[in-house]
């Protein structure tokens, strides 16, 4: 009995998921964790094991969808949940893209090239095995552009509606993609203009004809407005509702993007920038005029993708919006570095361009030879970008994967958590998980911890710790986050000054943390 290609594809997808899980679990055993996955692990522990009102943690932890995807697999293993989610999600993305090639292109060579990318590309391995939420961002961005290109072909607004839903999910995976809508505002006019049944091919003449005819002008305005409403109303409404939810439960509209208790990247991104800026061997930061060139260097395949779309100006402009988007991000967030995912999205948009247009090329042999060369080049540039990344987590991943040596980045957190785990269950420890969430993530019993999500108890414990807790975890001056918590080296002297009848004794100490015990009350 002949087995269908789709069955082979499904089997390979399962094998690919197993490959990713093997790498991710092995790196986990070597001690590799990143700040994002530790943050999700800690919040999941609070939801399942914490005391008091955890609704705020469940609903306002951001990005929301990556947190929930980790949440799903936490019953298997809380420490491996982010890795399982990213491995399965990336394998699912491979199946989605490969099915598109199978249906539209019907050439096994391109399936083989996609398979090589997903098996060997360092950036895709990083996306699949690090436990980060890059796979969700890439997947929903791919679906967003896929439905836009379907709309260009069929002129059916159903695809715009689906694209709008994909944009909503994309924003809830990474809030910064809300700025992508800015660049689609002028593009929608071009899209609408192209959809009108006019004999003229050039856009400028089509616009001139539309504005000089009352009926065409009315049709152009109505259709443009309709697409604006369909494409943007759902993302805007969803974001407004979520901000009102933040205002209701946290008294801050932007709590989910500005509070280190709600999202992991507020402090981590700033630390990455400060570390590079103050390093002895200072590295040249990203320059705005070079961002697009860096994108092309990382993904030369995007040039081929744009070449395939050359006959449709508005389709090329759709891809160019991504270049404008990353340039805008670099200008707006000038004190932050662009993470790997903002470069990786161009690789998948390139594949999408191939899905729609590569079958139209007549000289197939030249295209295949050129594509094979570019794919090999992509593997090299993907490795180089990770190796020389300005982001600590990205460099640590590729270093651990290359050398297969134990990663000690979280050794202090594990060491302190191990000591806390040995304390009796009835012990209470005051901690600020805005900065100490890695320690909380490695703690076996979060019930013994007094944390900010227990708002009233935490605030009272900060003022009079001896009434609520037996221990206090303090960030030392060497801790890079010491300036972002009240529980730093100035806290103990201040508490002693306010109440001289209470003594505090150091019981355990690392370079970044000191655990004090309340030893007497006079």
Automatic annotation (TrEMBL):
Keywords: Membrane, Transmembrane, Transmembrane helix. The chain crosses the membrane at residues 7-27, 79-97, 109-127, 133-149, 156-172, 178-199, 220-245, 287-309, 316-333, 339-358, 365-386. This is Glycosyltransferase RgtA/B/C/D-like domain-containing protein. It comes from Mucilaginibacter rubeus.
